[in-house]
Design a protein that fits this description.
This protein is mainly α. It contains 4 helices and no strands. The radius of gyration is 12 Å and the shape is globular.
């Protein structure tokens, strides 16, 4: 069976790593360090303090919060 394409927030990860030059684990560590906070506040932190675009910031935050909830 062929590999399933990556869906959801993780589908952004290769472009995030390429554009911002850091692995996703680094971005997740920043999100976790900034918490506890609301999703929107964490997205704003990545955008304002690290220059990340909204879609990329939202993907990192959504994925990280879902991972931590599981």
């Amino acid at each position: 069976m062929p590999d399933e394409p990556v869906k959801g927030p993780a589908s952004y990860f290769p472009s995030i790593e390429k554009r911002y030059g850091r692995p996703i684990t680094d971005w997740q560590a920043l999100v976790r360090k900034a918490g506890p906070a609301k999703h929107v506040e964490l997205v704003a932190m990545l955008k304002n303090e690290h220059g990340m675009g909204h879609g990329h910031a939202n993907a990192v935050v959504a994925y990280t919060l879902a991972q931590d909830k599981a």
